[in-house]
Amino acid sequence: MLTAKIKPHLHPELWQLNYLFSIGTRSWLVHFFVVTVVFTAMRGQGNFFMVWYSVMLCISAIMLFVCRAGVKIDPETQARRIRHLGVVHTGFVMLVGLIWGIGAIKAASISYGAALFFSLALGGTALGAVSSQSVVMRSCLSSIWTSVSLLAFAHWFIIPDATGRFSAGLMILFGVTLTVLANRMNGFLIANHKLRQDLEKQVVELEHARRIASDANASKSRFMAHASHDLRQPLHAIGLLNNNLQHEKMSGFAQDTVKKIGTSVASMSELFRALLDFSALELGQIQMQKSRFDIVELLDEIVARNIEQAKRKQCELNVLAGPCWVETDRSLLTNIIQNLVSNAIKYAPGKPILLRTDMVDKTITVSVLDRGNGIPSAKIKAVFKEYYQMETHDGQTAGGLGLGLALVQKFSDLLGLECTMSSDSASGTKVQISGLKPVPPQ
pTM of this prediction? Predict the structure, then answer.
């Protein structure tokens, strides 16, 4: 057990050495400043401190070079070189500690005041070693105990009275405290590194899961697109055959049956169209093709397309708009308004439906208004979600997949338009598509 605890201190991991080198540049610059201050205060005490200062400057310069070199080395390809630099770092910090200790002994031989000043400088340097070197405990402990033990020796043997012995004991206690602090900081750094590794691993796993889910979703969308496209072809054939039957002489029951078949085919075609549009959106296969057109002409075409369905639901479709040209993707805008009109016919049977345009802040807003029962304010956000279906006036669902308003929102975002809805039981529902920029007619 003891060997297991000591081994990480003697053989630090590569990330620990990288961290040591990364913060080493600043710490050795601070060390350079501290020894300069000490030399300035002690230079009048003889040539010893001139030599002491020169050696410290040389070692600080070497350590700056070692740290900068260690940062530039790639740990994946030159791990052995980084470990060698780590050993060099430990050797030089031990040497620095010894020189600090020798300086303390010399200062104690001069006077108690000089010893006290040197002790404060050395203590601050040892504390700095804890913050900058605790990630590699062999360097940190070498720095602390080579200097602190010699400092305690200086107080014990050089200063003859009890004050020296008491100070020496405090120096040893200070070294023990620094060791405990360094060990705790080392444990914190290791725990933080492990936590970071766990987080990175989880990020990789989540990204892998996201890609799997994204691929599965794309596969689902492709399947829906192909299936709906392939199924629309026989439905189109059924529609053509059903239209031919309507011109044949047949009984009233047969004619009613043919009309119901036509209605069912139209509903199925609408469902598959919604699936195709939604799948194309999810697969990113929709590309905008801007053109200039008269929006009133577009609204008239939508009314003509939905007039039969409106008659079956006893709805009256009206357009209130003056000539106005816009530039956007005509197909997508048609899809947006078509979905809004289809919804209005479904949920406001027997009520008038109005398509209108207004000029608001130099942009054009297209509105679809109905006089239906309205939508509770708490559900307005929900109706724009995929597969959400409201109940009709008779408590039944209107059929379909619940993709109409979801497509309206997505197509509006794609065109850079704003889709808003307001609704209440008294005035019905109003959906506005805002942000269309008017352009001169062609």
Answer: 0.53
